[in-house]
Structures are given as structure tokens and as C-alpha cells.
């Protein structure tokens, strides 16, 4: 029985004769030879049917050709032809096999931005029609960029211009330019020359903020100096070079980026000093040095000091502790803030910064008034700065909310201001009648101010008026009239005359 089974197994299985098994279409394409030259010849025939300079017809023909030509397989070859007019040979040169180059290509365009724009629009329509070409498009650009030392100056200018246009339209990521960080391209100055043309084309279409955002997303915003040859890689040469190229906005952008980097470093260092329990004098000394090195105006630097102090707080998880923590930190380091708030302009800038900060940080929004009031009590900001802010100096961020918070405090300040004006007028009257009062003797039981005569007392009072301390000689009736001033934090000492 076993032998019988073995014999039956050795016989071949039945097969269908005369039936053709069809190979799957995808398998046929995968096994097909890669023949870029044949694809090139087919594409050139398509482009030759269009009138040179008729970009709408060229776009239409390329759109139709996508149904028959294998764009997916020959994507990089397609873009090599559209950029250079031919296909690239190993080493970056254009293959010269006797075939005429395409009449439509970036290298064949006129070297002006209007002509190159029309060519770029053909690329734009093609990629939006066949979205799978996006990756091949970017790979081709990267491949071309590594051979910029192979192209002529005119070809590089056209290629750089169209890349700038593509990047400004978000058709390509500007990070393709990282290829130009290659040492031999940087050393020869080709990288700098190329990116200069790219930036010019970009800024012809978009503003510097748009370019800055693109550079930031690409991680290149802090690497612009790396395009310069090593012996010219400094801030002074950077500014001179781009100013000569009529790109002052790029210089201003770069300088601001450098300041922002310096600002972040300063904030981090101050946080470390606060954690290490350095005293106020040491912190102020460090900050003054940074202000001088960075060339900051006091109105700008006071805002950096504020950020450093507030970011150093280790916020607790309980909401009811937020106000206590914030006010404790501000009170402890008020001397540091005061050292960089010596003018009304700076005081206003600080209040505006705190307003925006409290608006953006939700946990501090309802504590804005308490913060400003504490700064007032610590002589960091004056009532004039606060009143100006309330009148017409507030920022738009949270303006209504913060104005409502500040109403009681603003009303109180205005009351103080009115009484202070009255006191100053009264003092002026007293000083005008000085000769009369000087001749009057003080009662024996009342103390003369230490060190002298009534004349010296008047000199003292006019000086101390600036420190919110008022010492005047008045009659008893006026003393009773001004007794209410005691509630205004104006300290009044009276010597009653006979």
C-alpha cells in the first residue's frame, strides 16, 4: 500500500494546456528596464509640439503626457529635463549624446525674473496636477545644488532665482539649501553667491517676516553665517555684504535674531543666579554688562529683566498660590527692576510688557493690578507712568480687562495727584512769604530740626519735597485744614508758629 502511494505521488499533476497566464501590470512595470534616454526622447517630442513661449500650451501638453509617459518612474529625469534641458550624467554634467536639448527649461529661459516666473508656473501646475511628483521634484533640486560648481554663472543665477520663487510659493522647502553647506562650495564663495540670489527672488515676492518663518521652520535661521567663507564669517562682514546687495531688511532680521539669542542666554543666566541665591548687586552688575555688550536701550532691556525674574519662579500647582508667589518674587527683586527703570519711557514700556505677559499667561491675568501696585509701592514705576498707561498707553492685548482691573487704583492715584498739586501750590505760597515766617520764633516746647535755624529749615524742606517727604512751617488753622493729607502717604511734619 505504501509503494502504491509513492508511485501515485511520483506522477505529475494535471495541467491546463493552451491557457496563457497573464502577468500583472504592476509586475511588468517593476521588471521593466530603467531607460531614462528613451523617456527623454518621448518627452522632447511632446514639448516640440508646443510653440516656444506658449506656457499654457506647454502645461497642457505635459498634463496630457502624464497619461502615457511614466512620470512616477522617471520623475527625477523629468525634472532634470525641465531644469537643464537634458539629463544628468554621473558627475553632474548634462549628458551630451547628440540629442538636441529641450527648448523649454530653466537654463534656456531669459535671465530675468519675469521670464523665470512664467517657467516656474509650469512646474507649479504640473506638480499640483501630479502630486506624487513632489518628492522627485525636491530630490532633483538637491541633486542639482550639489553641482553648482559645474554650472555657469548665468545658469546658477537662473536656478537660484527659480528656487527662490518656488520657496516663496511654498512649492519647495527652503531647507534644500543645506546642500550648499558643503565645504568646497562654501570655500569657493559659490554658496554665498547662490543663496544671495535665492533670497533676492524670495523677497521680491514676500516680506522678510515670511522669509524668516521659512528659515526658522527649516532650522536655518541661526545658520546664515555658515554660507560665508571661513575668513569672512563675522557679523560686520555679514552686514556690509547684504547692505551692498540692497538687502538691509535681511541684516535687520539677522541682528534681531542675534539679539534674541543673546536675550535667551541672559535670561537663562539670571535664572541660574537667582537659584544660586546671588544678591541683587551681583545680578544688577551682570545685567548692566549684558546691556552694554548687547547695545540694548533701557526700555527694551527692562522687559528682558522682567522676563528673567518671572520665569525664575517655580510655580506651584495650587491656583491660590499664584499671586503670592508672583508678588513675593517681584518684591524680593524689585531693586533689580528699579535699576533698569530710570525714565518714564522705560517705566511705561515695563507696564506694557507686564500687560502683554499677563494676557498671554492665563494664570497671571487676574493679578495684573496687584503686580503694578506692588511695583508702584516699591518705587519701580511712578504714578505718572501708570496714569499715562491708563489714559493712552495701554496695549491692545486684554486692554478692556486690565483697564477694568485698574479702575480703583487709577482713581486713587488721580486723587493723590490732585492733593499733591494743592500741596505744591501751598508750599510755593509759604516760600514766597519766607521773610515773614523766618522772623517768627518757635514756641519753647517745640523742637527745632536738628542742626539749625529757620532759614536752614526752609532749605531742607525744599530739598526733601522731592523724596515725597514734606516739612513745612504752617499756622495752626492750615495744619487742621491739611490734616487729611496723612492718608496719602505724604508724610507731613508740622512746626506751629506763634
Number of strands: 2
Q: SSE order in H/E notation?
A: HHHHHHHHHHHHHHHHHHHHHHHEHE
Q: Whole-number radius of gyration?
A: 39 Å
Largest sheet: 2 strands, parallel
Low-confidence stretches: 433-498
Mean pLDDT: 81
Characterize the structure shown:
The N and C termini lie far apart (148 Å). Helix content is 61%, strand content 2%. Strands 1-2 form a two-stranded parallel ribbon. The chain is mainly α. Mean pLDDT is 81; it is low at 433-498. It has helices at 2-10, 25-31, 36-48, 55-65, 75-84, 113-129, 133-145, 153-168, 183-187, 190-205, 208-217, 235-244, 248-275, 280-294, 298-311, 322-332, 334-338, 344-360, 368-377, 383-393, 399-432, 434-438, 454-464, 476-481; strands at residues 469-474, 491-496. Helix 6 (113-129) packs across helix 8 (153-168), helix 15 (298-311) runs parallel beside helix 18 (344-360) and helix 18 crosses helix 20. The longest helix has 34 residues, at 399-432.
Keywords:
mainly alpha; elongated; disordered C terminus; two-stranded parallel ribbon; single chain; 498 residues
What are the SSEs and their pairings?
Blueprint: H1 2-10, H2 25-31, H3 36-48, H4 55-65, H5 75-84, H6 113-129, H7 133-145, H8 153-168, H9 183-187, H10 190-205, H11 208-217, H12 235-244, H13 248-275, H14 280-294, H15 298-311, H16 322-332, H17 334-338, H18 344-360, H19 368-377, H20 383-393, H21 399-432, H22 434-438, H23 454-464, E1 469-474, H24 476-481, E2 491-496
Parallel strand pairs: 1-2
Outline of this structure?
This protein is 61% helix and 2% strand.
Amino acid at each position: 500500500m505504501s509503494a502504491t502511494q509513492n508511485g501515485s505521488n511520483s506522477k505529475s499533476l494535471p495541467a491546463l494546456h493552451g491557457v496563457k497566464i497573464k502577468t500583472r501590470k504592476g509586475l511588468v512595470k517593476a521588471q521593466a528596464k530603467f531607460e531614462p534616454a528613451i523617456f527623454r526622447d518621448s518627452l522632447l517630442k511632446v514639448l516640440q509640439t508646443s510653440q516656444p513661449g506658449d506656457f499654457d500650451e506647454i502645461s497642457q501638453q505635459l498634463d496630457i503626457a502624464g497619461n502615457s509617459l511614466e512620470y512616477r518612474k522617471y520623475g527625477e529625469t523629468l525634472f532634470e529635463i525641465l531644469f537643464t534641458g537634458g539629463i544628468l550624467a554621473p558627475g553632474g554634467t548634462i549628458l551630451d549624446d547628440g540629442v538636441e536639448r529641450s527648448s523649454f527649461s530653466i537654463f534656456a529661459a531669459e535671465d530675468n525674473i519675469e521670464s523665470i516666473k512664467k517657467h516656474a508656473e509650469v512646474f507649479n501646475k504640473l506638480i499640483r496636477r501630479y502630486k506624487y511628483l513632489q518628492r522627485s521634484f525636491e530630490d532633483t533640486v538637491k541633486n542639482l545644488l550639489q553641482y553648482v560648481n559645474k554650472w555657469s554663472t548665468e545658469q546658477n543665477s537662473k536656478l537660484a532665482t527659480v528656487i527662490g520663487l518656488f520657496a516663496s510659493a511654498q512649492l519647495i522647502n527652503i531647507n534644500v539649501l543645506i546642500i550648499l553647506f558643503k565645504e568646497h562650495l562654501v570655500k569657493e564663495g559659490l554658496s554665498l553667491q547662490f543663496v544671495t540670489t535665492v533670497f533676492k527672488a524670495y523677497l521680491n515676492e514676500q516680506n522678510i517676516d515670511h522669509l524668516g518663518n521659512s528659515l526658522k521652520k527649516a532650522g536655518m535661521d541661526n545658520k546664515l553665517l555658515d554660507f560665508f567663507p571661513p575668513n569672512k564669517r563675522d557679523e560686520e562682514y555679514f552686514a556690509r555684504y547684504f547692505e551692498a546687495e540692497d538687502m538691509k531688511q535681511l541684516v535687520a532680521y539677522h541682528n534681531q535674531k542675534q539679539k534674541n539669542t543673546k536675550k535667551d542666554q541672559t535670561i537663562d543666566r539670571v535664572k541660574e543666579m537667582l537659584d544660586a541665591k546671588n544678591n541683587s548687586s551681583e545680578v544688577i552688575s551682570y545685567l548692566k554688562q549684558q546691556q552694554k555688550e548687547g547695545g540694548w536701550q533701557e526700555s527694551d532691556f527692562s522687559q528682558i529683566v522682567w522676563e528673567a525674574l518671572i520665569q525664575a519662579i517655580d510655580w506651584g500647582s495650587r491656583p491660590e498660590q499664584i499671586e503670592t508667589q508672583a508678588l513675593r518674587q517681584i518684591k524680593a527683586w524689585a531693586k533689580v527692576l528699579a535699576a533698569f527703570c530710570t525714565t518714564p519711557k522705560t517705566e511705561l514700556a515695563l507696564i506694557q510688557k507686564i500687560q502683554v505677559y499677563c494676557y498671554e499667561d492665563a494664570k497671571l491675568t487676574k493679578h495684573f493690578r496687584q503686580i503694578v501696585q506692588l511695583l508702584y509701592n516699591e518705587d519701580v514705576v511712578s504714578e505718572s507712568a501708570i496714569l499715562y498707561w491708563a489714559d493712552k498707553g495701554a496695549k491692545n492685548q486684554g486692554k478692556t480687562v486690565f483697564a477694568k482691573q485698574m479702575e480703583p487704583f487709577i482713581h486713587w492715584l488721580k486723587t493723590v495727584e490732585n492733593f499733591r498739586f494743592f500741596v505744591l501750590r501751598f508750599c510755593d505760597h509759604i516760600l514766597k512769604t519766607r521773610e515773614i515766617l523766618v522772623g517768627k520764633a518757635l514756641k519753647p516746647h517745640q523742637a527745632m530740626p536738628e542742626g539749625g535755624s529757620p532759614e536752614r529749615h526752609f532749605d531742607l524742606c525744599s530739598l526733601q519735597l522731592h523724596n515725597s517727604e514734606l516739612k513745612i512751617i504752617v499756622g495752626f488753622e492750615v495744619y487742621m485744614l491739611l490734616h487729611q493729607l496723612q492718608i496719602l502717604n505724604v508724610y507731613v511734619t508740622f512746626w506751629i508758629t506763634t
